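quick q for whoever's on today - can somebody do inverse folding on this one?? i tried earlier but teh output was garbage lol. tokens:
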């Protein structure tokens, strides 16, 4: 089947925004220039993405639905971080005590430019670019980020992050797509999760990194497929916030696999990033959610492939420093599948 591609623009409350629809036999991928975001992933007549119902609410949401995150994913802690002994000032993200997801000038709220489009028989790809100026959000260096999305006929959805900088800086990019593999998005009732990680990053109540911890015997041990509802119930029984943690991936082909028994739809994740931040939408969503009449809490998950957040503050972690003579290059592959094909 010949893949199809459609693009259109919309005037929105965040300005003129482009949308790109990449379509294969089984998958429709809807992307946007704003935050180089994933809007929808349609597979087996089901939207696998959880997001606000209105596109306007999706675009400027502070829950980062589907958005590309940068310069840094996760948290940095004001008033500064140190880079080669130099204190670099950072400011908190409005509404958060930390500098979350790149701060007020985060890439999730920047309008990327389409710089290339390619279509071959078995794949369609687009590349979106954002140039972050020197000292934007106080980060050193002009950083150019290219996000390439590829939809392949075998249902692989690939996104590549490629960045260079004019000065040594921090760079830790991810995609923050929320997933619920059921047509009904009210809960994760029949979802199961597997993350191939022997360790996770233990954090304090302010999400500051403490240390790497073995997952064995804990609620963080997801090396065998577990019921998501049962796992979240364990946190609830301990009156603890559920998953919002970085998992250090083992050197295995499949990093994570989420599967909904009710829809028989699964999604496999592969990546060359060292960690996945697994988040179970722990906060109330005040906007009307698509195909959902609850407040969104624990109604979806993210599997954010990235470097461990806040690594610059901890000598044993990846520091996410990108040097001016280096290239930042990482790939994520998400592949939807039907477990029991008809
Ligand atoms: C909360 O702590 C969580 C983050 O991990 C998440 O990315 C954000 O909500 C959307 O701040």
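ok took a stab at it. sequence:
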């Amino acid at each position: 089947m010949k893949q199809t591609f459609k693009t259109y623009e919309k005037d929105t409350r965040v300005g003129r925004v482009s949308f790109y629809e990449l379509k294969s036999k089984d998958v429709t991928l809807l992307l946007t220039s704003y935050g180089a975001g994933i809007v929808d992933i349609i597979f087996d007549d089901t939207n696998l993405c959880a997001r606000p119902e209105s596109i306007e609410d999706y675009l400027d949401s502070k829950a980062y639905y589907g958005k590309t995150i940068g310069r840094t994913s996760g948290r940095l802690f004001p008033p500064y971080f140190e880079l080669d002994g130099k204190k670099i000032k950072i400011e908190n993200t409005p509404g958060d005590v930390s500098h979350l997801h790149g701060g007020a000038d985060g890439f999730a709220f920047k309008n990327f430019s389409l710089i290339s489009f390619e279509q071959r028989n078995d794949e369609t790809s687009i590349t979106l670019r954002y140039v972050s100026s020197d000292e934007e959000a106080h980060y050193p260096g002009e950083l150019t980020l290219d996000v390439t999305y590829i939809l392949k006929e075998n249902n692989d959805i690939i996104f590549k992050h490629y960045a260079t900088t004019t000065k040594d800086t921090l760079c830790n990019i991810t995609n923050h797509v929320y997933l619920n593999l059921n047509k009904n998005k009210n809960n994760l009732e029949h979802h199961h999760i597997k993350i191939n990680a022997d360790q996770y990053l233990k954090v304090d109540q302010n999400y500051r990194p403490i240390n790497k911890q073995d997952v064995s015997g804990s609620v963080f041990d997801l090396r065998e497929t577990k019921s998501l509802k049962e796992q979240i119930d364990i946190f609830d029984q301990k009156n603890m916030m559920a998953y919002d943690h970085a998992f250090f991936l083992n050197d295995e082909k499949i990093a994570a696999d989420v599967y909904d028994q009710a829809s028989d739809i699964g999604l496999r994740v592969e990546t060359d990033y060292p960690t996945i931040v697994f988040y179970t939408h722990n906060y109330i969503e005040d906007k009307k959610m698509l195909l959902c009449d609850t407040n969104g809490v624990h109604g979806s998950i993210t599997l954010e492939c990235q470097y461990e957040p806040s690594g610059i503050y901890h000598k044993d972690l990846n520091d996410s420093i990108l040097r001016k003579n280096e290239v930042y290059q990482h790939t994520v592959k998400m592949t939807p599948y039907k477990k029991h094909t008809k």
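fwiw The CA atoms of residues 24 and 131 lie 30 Å apart. also The two ends are 20 Å apart (CA to CA). so keep that in mind when u check it
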